[in-house]
Amino acid sequence: MKATILLIIFFLGTSLRAQLTVPDTTTKKSNSTKKWFESINIRGYAQVRYNGLLQTNEDLECEQCDKSWGGENGFFFRRVRLIIYGQVNPRVYFYIQPDFASAPVSTNLNFAQLRDAYFDVGIDKENQFRFRIGQSKVPFGFENMQSSQNRLPLDRADAMNSAVSNERDLGVFFYYAPIKIRKRYSSLVSEGLKGSGDYGVFGLGIYNGQTANKPELNTNRHVVARISYPFAIKKQIIEPGIQAYKGVYTLSTLSSGVKSNIDKTYLDERIGATFVLYPKPFGILAEYNVGTGPEFDKLADSITNQRLSGGFITASYKIDFKSQTLIPFLRYQKYDGGKKHELDARSYKVEELEIGAEWQPNKNFELVVMYTMSSRRFEDYAKQNNYQRGNLLRIQAQVNF
User: Fold this and answer.
1) How confident is the model at residue 191 (pLDDT cuts 50, 70, 90)?
2) What's the chain's Rg over C-alpha atoms?
3) Distance CA 378, CA 49 (A)
4) Domain regions of the chain by residue span
5) What is the pLDDT of residues 21-72, one digit of tens each?
6) CB 154 within 8 Å of CB 146
7) Closest Cα partner for 244 from 208, 280, 270, 206?
8) Helical residues (DSSP H) of 173-283, grouped into ranges
């Protein structure tokens, strides 16, 4: 841990010294002809969902997925994002993303909350080596890093997303990718191939570990590392990857009466593998991870460190016709383990199949229809025998601007 922190401090110092001591004639010329606000851009997207069609079990829920699952649900804002970003200096890029449809609980909707707030500092003039400082996505899992604006299934799979709630945390991350690969990452998104964005072919970071918008509750930082490379093989692109993180997590939501460690702190570590075949036209996204984390044990009425495992596979087929795009898809997922950020590190056993299609009549509008067949056991101190099974048809309309 100390070695990692010293390494990041060394690179930061090297970058800042280089920028202070080496004249940048390009920057001076740019500043004389371009106002600061001309480097700032705004974009965003919004998603409206309806989950009430063909619902067979009102008690089937997914707290981390979508708070309009189950019950007497109606129309629901899943996301309303406004993204402010810009390359304000050849070596400095910033990105701020609030969400105006956050839901702290199912009865309180549409609160504004910060999602991303970071800046990238380039070490070299091409920004192949860069540091990302602030609150951003933790580089663990392709689907976690893939924007919800681009993902096919309506929610991320439990197996990988249970690692980091909201996919984000506050810290410092180092990324490296050569210019050629950075351009490839960009094209995989701009060409509608459902890319993850540019998180480098190598990433290394230190972050709090309590997840986004929550204070740190212990003196230990999480460390994460990821290696991934998109290979071009003729007209096809495949991207294998491996990632891992380690730290300790302090529980913050416990039922009265549940037993836990005195300091409520538990080992939190995972390793996962990823395989991506980009949809040209047939696509596959598969991920699997194993690890250790806190989980409620109903036999002992206590929270203990337990093993966890799970993954998913998504198959898709991209059809372009008359300036429109249709992508039918299928995803199967399994997960057995705890969710540290939920009440009592709720214990889960999930098996789920989703069949759907995304239709894009133009670049500014998307419609997703997805049928979910789900089997979920999710248990905490109050609900110790909570097994729910059911099906539902889910619809989402998305506008991109």
Assistant:
1) very high
2) 22
3) 24
4) 40-400
5) 434 434 444 445 677 778 899 999 999 999 988 999 999 988 888 888 887 7
6) no
7) 270
8) 179-190
